[in-house]
Amino acid sequence: MNGVARITTALLACVAAAxxxxxxxxxxxxxxxxxxxxxxxxxxDTMARVISERLQANLGQPVIVENRIGxxxxxxxxxxxxxxxxxxxxxVYTSSFTMVPxxxxxxxxxxxxxxxxxTIATIPNVLIVSPAKGWxxxxxxxxAAKAGPGQLTYGSAGVGTSTHMGAExxxxxxxxxxxxxxxxxxxxxxxxxxxxxxxxxxAPIVATMGQIRDGKVKALAVGSARRARALPDxxxxxxxGYPGSEYNFWVGLLVASKTPRETVNRLNQEVNKVLQAPxxxxxxxxxxxxxxxxxxxxxxxxxxxxxxxxxxxxKAADIKLE
Length: 322
What we know:
Blueprint: H1 3-24, E1 32-36, H2 43-59, E2 63-67, H3 74-81, E3 89-94, H4 110-113, E4 114-122, E5 125-129, H5 138-147, E6 153-156, H6 162-174, E7 179-182, H7 186-194, E8 200-204, H8 205-213, E9 218-222, E10 250-256, H9 261-275, H10 278-285, E11 290-291, H11 296-317
Parallel strand pairs: 1-2, 1-3, 6-7, 6-8
Antiparallel strand pairs: 3-10, 4-10, 4-11, 5-8, 5-9
Helix pairs in contact: 2-9
């Protein structure tokens, strides 16, 4: 065996030994990275930073938040899907994850490549209108829409976003025909509600609480399954008489799908512990969100159901994602 061959053999032996050692190590044995696909300061990114502090103490290893921005979170999630499946690289994603399969040429196979770990919170979307419209209840809005099919307009933060999908789900439940006007983000849509250029909008509570308090917009209903903690007097769309109209905009964690089950279970348990801390709950609720704690099996079932529901909604509404 020549010198090059001996060196190559030695290097391969070292790699094999390191791999074997890593496989026998107990998670976690190095820095844990929470990969946020959105800009610092946004709701889901802030939640990641809130839980990272306590998660670090619980795991006994550094926990850092790393931003990989692009594609509404897809770029960051794709990097996690391709990461070493050892639990140390975690995607901080939203319910937009269950819309990835319906986008053209997605960079990863969502159901196959990423696995649920834990939920953090749900961010209720609230249906808002201008007070000038004179609608005091959701039934008033529906009556106006039915009186003039295709005449009312609604805004969203973009095609395929939770604000769009939630509005479409409500539209089908209420049996109304309205025109979708997509915007670059929630603030632009809210501004056009105030200006009277569109008729209604489902907006994240965090993006519109100030305008609701100031009376610039009126909240008719929330699109979540339960009433929002930030708006306890505002009914859900289901309570208002439209069953099947709820849309859950969640924030959660996912890992590469081949991550060992015991590691995923450990992460689920530790995140759930963190979310039970009063100061953590308070900081998340101040964002207009409601803490959402789920056993791993329930989160997995929720994800599977959302893939099915979104497939039906995309087809029924003929939604074309870019």
